[in-house]
Amino acid sequence: xxxxxxxxxxxxxxxxxxxxxxxxxxxxxxxxxxxxxxxxxxxxxxxxxxxxxxxxxxxxxxxxxxxxxxxxxxxxxxxxxxxxxxxxxxxx
Length: 92
What we know:
Blueprint: H1 17-28, H2 34-41, H3 45-59, H4 65-91
């Protein structure tokens, strides 16, 4: 009876930033399908799909969100200061 061979793990391929950018550009700007681009580049369609989704997330931010983030930061600082003052007054 032969011993069972352990399942070989797939080697994880690391792609550089330029490769990722070009692959995503082909899908997003050129309008090519993710399947076709992945096949042409010899890579997994799932990986390319993740890259494309990640690239689209910052573009989906609503207009004016930077102003809201700035206001949020300012309000949190004011709240922290008010809580600190309240705690000081409680100790008296």
